[in-house]
């Protein structure tokens, strides 16, 4: 453990030195991490961001666009040869097709380099030509950040905590039944081990579909090339125990450790440690629609995700980062086009409240944080509809289910976020007086004027917060 972390930090040292030389003397690089739980909207965010940086007609909220200093933007080969390229062209193709579709969901890390040619401002304006700033965008599942917490845990501790947490969840009942009569001391039987891992994975999928966010180990949901490997063939056991050498408990313990050292650590070492700016996308409306438990669970998952950005929480990560830190973190509630703009401030307030605990701990010292509500791709138009003697602020769009146009009133978010977060914390089963609906809209078919990117809500403000100061 000591040796491997030493080796990790030496590796970073060498890499770090190389980065610094090339960046300081040649062209600066901003590494922007984009994360969020599955279906939070990462793929759409990156696609819309890049499309709007290439065609900047709708991006005046980015000051370098507003004052004309951002002269051009172009895609370039990315610096990392072993990370899949973010498939920008295919995703944009889907969103802007004659019959537009949402892009297919992606399951792992990917990367894209967009290079920006920027004219200097201030005193240097007349003296220097434009310089090039590289924006390396790294898309990775938020579930992988939740795995950081596993590094501090032994298999026994993880088993206990997990079984406690899921005991009352309906989604977990099949797994808990599969466990009956099983404990850590039974002899290892590979088909049984696989069946348990499968049942536990089944639970994770079901929990996620019910809106739960604490679905770890993250690679169980998004296994990629690791599917079926021993590092993914374990599950929590009651009495994981002292066990004999050939017991199920000991085998699961070894695999849990392999998962930590061969799956979790490499991600933090090779990718996470190099990020400068981070956006965390959150489908807050989706969780609100799913109910108080999902909101509370999302709040906890956010706190865990944020833990990864608090240097000091994990000794291994601290030694890896060697004082380096993420400089800015944006928490963005996505899909705000489901709400009339009258309600956007309320959504932002909920987002702020959701992340406040974690942000208040002030260990972010040095990192600037912000909360916003955005829509990467706006799929609706706003409309006031008379109903019951008042005007309801609605949005109109094309329903994903039927393709038909419809006006939709999602319900009124409370002015005080505590009205949502309170019942959520107290474990309420449903919202008291209100129901919040959510519809899935299809992307609008677009006719873009030359120079315009796809329509969005505050995506340019998000970009200004994330990278504006470096342009
Ligand atoms: N209305 C609306 N829906 C969105 C937006 N962004 C994402 N979505 C929806 O969320 C789904 C998941 O988005 P995606 O980017 O694939 O999520 P990812 O799993 O985090 O990469 C999409 O298929 C859309 O249905 C948005 O800006 N507006
Ligand atoms: Mg994706």
Quick recap of the structure?
The protein has 471 residues and is of the alpha/beta class. It has helices at 2-25, 42-54, 63-66, 88-96, 143-146, 148-151, 155-166, 173-178, 190-209, 218-221, 248-270, 284-290, 292-307, 315-321, 344-360, 418-425, 459-467; strands at residues 29-36, 70-76, 110-118, 131-139, 277-282, 328-333, 368-373, 381-387, 390-399, 405-408, 441-442. The strands form two sheets. Strands 2-3-4-1-5-6-7 form a seven-stranded mixed beta sheet. Strands 8, 9, 10 and 11 form a four-stranded antiparallel beta sheet that branches.
Task: Summarize the structure in words.
There is one protein chain. This protein has 471 residues and is an alpha/beta fold. The chain folds into two domains: 2-140 and 271-378 and 447-470, Rossmann fold, CATH 3.40.50.300; 154-263, no CATH class. The protein contains 17 helices and eleven strands. The chain has a seven-stranded mixed beta sheet with strand order 2-3-4-1-5-6-7. Strands 8, 9, 10 and 11 form a four-stranded antiparallel beta sheet that branches. Strand 8 and strand 9 form a beta hairpin. Magnesium ion binds next to helix 2.
